[in-house]
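Residues determine shape. We examine one folded chain.
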Amino acid sequence: MNIVKILGSAFSALTVASVALVAYAEVATFQEEQIQAMYEEQHQCLALNIYHEARGDSRLGQKAVAFVTMNRVYDNRYPNTVCDVVYQAHYDRKGNPIRNKCQFSWWCDGKNDTPRDKKMWNYVQGIAHEVMSDYGIVEDFTEGAVMYHASYVNPYWAKDYERTVRIDTHIFYK
């Protein structure tokens, strides 16, 4: 009789352990799916920013724009996700970005934001992945820049920042 009770208890314990293991695996899978979905969303925002801000620049120039975006994410003066950095703006009562009141001009220029050049879109997605994967590991050749502007303009704020580098059509500041 004791052996039956012992075996029954052992079987019950194994059943509970099996159920717990399955539940843990399901929770872990769910968490992995959530992390993947969050990564994909942030990746999409970074790729859009590179595409609209620097698609005509060299690979180095495109990576520089990506580094500025990532530098802002890790700077406490800015939002702490890529998407929040990219879409940082002043919004009207209807939730639309106000023209010329955005951190990145493409977001509030009134134009369609859907990438039209599919080859370039695929290319900048690779750059976005590379920069997100390597950020903090590889050298930041913008030297920690959090601002930039086109070389043909002279924004009022430039005098308040330290110029770090010029790459292609952009001048970078920290």
